């Protein structure tokens, strides 16, 4: 059991490019003890596991995995979005994305599945895919996936598609933390793109991602930002993110507003 903990701890540490010395400093534990934990020569207390998870700034899901690998019960619950206690959260997300109309905004989960969109996003999605969905409500499964959409239906409409892929995919891979399903989608998109991720991608993602949308012979320029929800103590809540698209200039605003207002 502890060997499983040590291997997982080392994997999580190295994936974040954190040295044993840095982690021992952040967690206020000796490098010798940390080495013993990773090799299975020492067994951590529950408190030590939580300290290490905090020092590595792990997502709540990974902190639970680390606890369970050491033989402890999970510390953070994972609530279904369909649960009654999530109603207030869903309502808050509806308010946030509705306030961004007529420009696109959407809520995604950790797999980059689109859970909910506003009127602007529903209109854009229909334009790109010829598929309609009701805005402001939780979409039924199977939900549209952003990575899959980038590979297929969205691609013809994104003039700077290479730039978008080179920014989005490494971010998705970093957040996947070994999730086979997500990494498989990413690998397929890398294959289709023909891009070399190790050579073409710089380790720092752009602070703002520009997106150029082809509308006939015109181009609408947007930039997107992603927001997460404060400091939640629930796995599901922490893994939600809201992505909103802003017109990058007045010409794009004038071009997009009448086109997307029909979905609001």
From TrEMBL:
Q: Which molecular function terms from Gene Ontology are attached?
A: DNA binding
Domain named HTH cro/C1-type: which ranges?
9-63
- Give the signal peptide as a residue range, or say none if absent: none
Under Pfam families, the record lists:
HTH_31, MLTR_LBD
Taxonomically, which superkingdom? Bacteria
The family database entries (InterPro entries) matched by this protein are listed as: Cro/C1-type_HTH (IPR001387), Lambda_DNA-bd_dom_sf (IPR010982), MLTR_LBD (IPR041413)
Record protein name field: Transcriptional regulator
């Amino acid at each position: 059991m502890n060997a499983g903990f040590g291997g997982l701890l080392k994997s999580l540490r190295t994936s974040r490019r954190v040295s044993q010395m840095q982690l021992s400093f952040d967690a206020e534990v000796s490098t010798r003890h940390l080495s013993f934990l990773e090799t299975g020569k020492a067994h951590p207390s529950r408190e030590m596991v939580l300290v290490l998870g905090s020092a590595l700034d792990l997502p709540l899901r990974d902190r639970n995995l680390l606890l369970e690998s050491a033989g402890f019960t999970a510390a953070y619950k994972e609530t279904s979005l369909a649960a009654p206690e999530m109603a207030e959260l869903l309502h808050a997300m509806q308010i946030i994305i509705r306030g961004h109309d007529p420009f696109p905004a959407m809520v995604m989960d950790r797999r980059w599945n689109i859970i909910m969109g506003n009127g602007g996003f529903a209109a854009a999605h229909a334009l790109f895919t010829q598929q309609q969905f009701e805005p402001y409500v939780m979409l039924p499964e199977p939900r549209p996936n952003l990575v899959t959409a980038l590979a297929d239906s969205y691609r013809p409409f994104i003039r700077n598609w290479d730039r978008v892929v080179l920014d989005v995919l490494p971010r998705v891979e970093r957040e996947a933390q070994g999730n086979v399903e997500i990494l498989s989608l990413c690998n397929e998109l890398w294959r289709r793109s023909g891009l070399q991720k190790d050579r073409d991608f710089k380790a720092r993602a752009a602070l703002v991602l520009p997106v150029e949308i082809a509308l006939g012979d015109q181009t609408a320029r947007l930039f997107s930002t992603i927001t997460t929800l404060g400091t939640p103590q629930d796995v599901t809540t922490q893994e939600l993110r809201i992505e909103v698209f802003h017109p990058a200039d007045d010409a794009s605003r004038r071009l997009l507003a009448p086109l997307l207002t029909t979905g609001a």
